[in-house]
User: Fold this.
Amino acid sequence: MTMDLNWYFYSDTNARADELEALLMKKSHTLKSFQLLEDLFHQLERMPHTILFLKANTAYNVYDLCQEISVKFPSTYLIIIVPENMENTKKAMRVGASNMLTYSSDSEEVNEVIIQAQTFVKQRADQKGSAHPHLQKKNSRVMSVCSSKGGVGKTTLSVNLANAFVKDGKSVVILDANFQFGDVSMYVDLKPKRSVYEWIKEGVERERYGIENYLTHHSSGVAILATPPRPEFFEIITEEHLELAVSELRKSYDVILIDTPTYISEIHLKSLMVCDDILLVTTGDLPVLRNTKLYLDMLESLQLNEKVKIILNRDSKHRVIEAKRMESILQEPVYVSLPDQGVHIATTINEGLPLVMKNGRNAFSKGMFILAHQLIPVSSEVEKKPKRFALSR
Ligand SMILES: Nc1ncnc2c1ncn2[C@@H]1O[C@H](COP(=O)(O)OP(=O)(O)OP(=O)(O)O)[C@@H](O)[C@H]1O
Ligand SMILES: [Mg+2]
Assistant:
């Protein structure tokens, strides 16, 4: 069954969207343009499954308008189109935009955004259709992000992959299992008010398990179960708590990512047991590979090796050890390889904005989308590469 999507374009001058219209036409969608805000509002009120392109204009502030629409019509998928000098991803996210294009976006970029919008709106409609949203979600996927050595990129992978899944319309939560020195919230510039600690103290110990109130929400849509406010509080947390947290989170999230601590503990082992996929992050350096192999041996002895997927991070053309040799050392294929981005990644951590959000076309971000789609395939669409395209000004 195909679902009808409503594609709208708003700009209060007679700016045209011919190329956008043509691109949508190729996918058999029609674009309806509005010049009067009241006409647009009237339509948004009545129609479900709407995707709205909102073009910047001198007559109004596109960010303010976006915020107004996202408050009035929260189910609308909003794409703002701004000149380069007004490009501000953080601000766009804060005012409720789901995506952003610039005046010089080429057809490939626009196509990507169209596909993302389509996937998102369809996915959300499917979720709404399910009769008992509070029952255990049967299709939740739990993924543990692990490594044998510290600093190889587990947290970087967790926050970026979470955002890649969000772009596919999935509900995503990151459980930061580095209960002493977790830094997931820091990577996305959040200061959590509550954490796993309060959940255990106020909830679990009084047999009230509801976890939702203890999560912190990022403007991208990703939820986080943060670590205790002080490292010494970790002592009260047991592997049973971890298991309980995962089963609570399964009730309302499609994807649960567990960012695990490097050292092997009961908590680490429990996260390996309860997950569906083990994303084992490694680099191509020999000492790391050696330890990754040891880690794989451990998984084998625990009969958990079926779950493992090797993520090769910080890959580059100048690798010392050839890919084939790596795979023969590990005796396991590389599932996905992610390029080294130099200081780029560190900059995004400083800004608190994952690279996938900041720049979806960067090679690392693309690798992240490939990983997300390999893990959970989205309905595929055959894409023809259209010629270069610019939105009309
Ligand atoms: N692909 C990459 N390219 C460049 N730098 C990267 C890449 N991946 C991670 N880094 C950098 O490596 C450092 C460590 O990354 P990260 O914190 O994600 O590792 P980790 O495995 O979570 O560490 P820990 O074991 O301490 O939790 C960060 O400074 C990050 O910027
Ligand atoms: Mg980390």
Observations:
- The longest strand covers residues 308-315.
- The chain is about 40% helix and 15% strand.
- Confidence is low (pLDDT under 50) at residues 382-393.
